[in-house]
Design goal:
The chain is an alpha/beta fold. It has one domain: 2-Layer Sandwich (Transcription Regulator spoIIAA), CATH 3.30.750. It is built from three helices and six strands; from the N terminus they run βββαβαβαβ. It has a six-stranded mixed sheet with strand order 1-2-3-4-5-6, with helices on one face. α3 links the parallel β5 and β6. α1 packs parallel to α2. The radius of gyration is 14 Å and the shape is globular. It starts with 8 loop residues before the first strand and ends with a strand.
Length: about 130
């Protein structure tokens, strides 16, 4: 059986979209910044496509997803849930780290909401600044 090598995906942040750093080689996937894209489908669909290919080709190693979003809009929420749902197939081989800034109870609460919707375990990491 041949395992296809995945290309990493890196997209720089803008004032409306987060930084994307998906490293297939070491299994670390990070979304960081603000996500208020006017066309969330255009931005997130390629990320979901990448995630689907990744899940099909990843080996037995652990994948860590780091969500470091400061703020996002409603349309981003739907795509973020679908993105994370893609990794559910990895079972205990995926770790989701939900970062939130000190005193940003709303973002932590959003993480617990996502955790309940997805029925996946999140690890919450409080930081001074994202």
């Amino acid at each position: 059986m041949t395992i296809m090598k995945m290309k990493n995906l890196v997209i720089n942040s803008t004032n409306k979209t987060p930084k994307i750093d998906f490293n297939a080689e070491i299994g670390i996937i990070e979304i960081k910044g603000v996500s208020i894209a006017e066309d969330a489908n255009k931005f997130y669909s390629p990320l979901i496509d990448w995630a689907e290919r990744y899940v099909k080709t990843t080996g037995l190693f652990l994948t860590t997803i780091k969500i470091k979003i400061i703020y996002f809009n409603t349309s981003t929420s739907d795509y973020l849930i679908n993105f994370l749902k893609t990794f559910k197939k990895l079972g205990d081989k995926v770790s989701i780290e939900w970062y939130y800034e000190t005193e940003d109870d709303d973002m932590k609460e959003t993480g617990t909401h996502f955790e309940n919707i997805l029925e996946m375990k999140f690890h919450y990491i409080e930081v001074d600044e994202i």
